[in-house]
Specification:
- With 139 residues, this protein is of the alpha+beta class.
- The protein has 4 helices and 5 strands.
- The chain has one domain: Thiol Ester Dehydrase, Chain A (Roll), CATH 3.10.129.
- It is globular, with a radius of gyration of 16 Å.
């Protein structure tokens, strides 16, 4: 299984993962927008703010990335992405951009073309809370 990389953001006590993606040819012609941001000009992939989703806080799912012989290129990409995100100004920009998109979505102030690309954050939160309630009731 390939590791999944994302950035954690907390909103109203719910943790969201903001997913990263590997570099793709289509990114070359794309610009940084409210819901998309290239990492190192796209050389190291991009951040898909529109696809962020709530997750349970579970430290057991967080792993340390080590280069693998058979996936050295991919491991290096992940290390580069993490290094970029560990820079304070980049991390702050990502979290501000995610919060801004979230607020615009739930307050219905997004342009339609951006809103259509986004996950329905309120619907995801509703199902997340239902899952939590169900899980707690089974314990």
């Amino acid at each position: 299984m390939r590791p999944f990389i994302g950035i954690l953001m907390t909103h109203d006590d719910i943790e969201y993962v903001i997913p990263l993606t590997s570099p793709k040819d289509k990114h070359k012609n794309m610009k940084n927008t409210m819901d998309f941001h290239k990492i190192n000009g796209g050389k190291w992939g991009a951040i898909n703010f529109n696809n962020m989703f709530p997750v349970l806080h579970d430290p057991s799912v967080y792993k340390i990335i080590r280069p693998l012989k058979d996936e050295n290129t991919y491991s290096n990409l992940l290390i580069n992405q993490i290094s970029w995100l560990n820079k304070t100004e980049n991390r702050e920009m990502v979290l501000k951009k995610a919060e801004k998109l979230y607020e615009a979505y739930v307050n219905d102030t997004l342009q339609d073309k951006i809103k259509k690309r986004c996950c329905d954050f309120k619907k995801l939160e509703k199902h997340y809370k239902e899952y939590i309630t169900l899980t707690l009731s089974q314990k």
